[in-house]
Amino acid sequence: MFTWICPKCGREVLPSYTECPNCKGAPAESAPAPPPPQQPVYQQPVYQQPVYAAPPQQPVYPQQPVYQPPPPGYQAAPPPGYAPPPPQAAYPPQYGPPAYPAAKTGLAALPTWLLSVGFAVAIAVVVGALYWLLGSSTTAGTSSTSKPPATVENPAAKTDAKTNPVQKYIEISGIRFTEDNRKRILVKFTVTNHSDADMSGLTGNVTIWARTQKSEEDSVGTFSFSTNVPPEMSVEASAPLITKLKIYELPDWQNVTTDVQITAPQ
Description:
Elements: E1 4-5, E2 12-13, H1 21-24, H2 112-144, E3 170-179, E4 185-193, E5 199-210, E6 221-229, E7 234-240, E8 256-264
């Protein structure tokens, strides 16, 4: 519906009126005056607390009856048909003879210090017997081997001895000491032929000296050998060592010297 606004009073007038009835004093069917424009009012959003479901409730159990202690002097009545046993007479405790430990017999009866001394003596006897047996077997094995002559002379020290002409071509080196299965001391050595002749049936006696040994002391030991050496060749050989020393008392290979006495060939 269209209306026009009166320029005098500012009211809306229907289009059927040419003049404003309000200004003339006559009632006029006019539309209500429009409200003055209002500023928009900002409404702050209201935060709503989330609603959570209530947790399940624990089942309610019936309250247990509270135990009430019986009053002092209360005695429970025996079940029907039950007769309490008659009181029994108290007997005095029975006492017997004290139990003594059994008497020790045999070695258990000896004091501890005496047993210790006895065991120590027995061990010493066993060790001594083993040492004597091993020493006698070593001596027997050494005496059964072929021995060089009792007087193995040093060719360098004896100036009037007749030297074998082959001796200057023979060299004994590489002295090493070892033991066999019978605990006999063996000497391993190298025989070198520096000549152009074939040395077949080469035999001789060798005396071993310690390099730091004094001239008046005894030699380390002696041994004899027999082998065949081609011209300008060397062969490895071994022989039993005649000595009074133990294997651990012999000098090292780099601290020994040798004296050779060739007996064959002539």
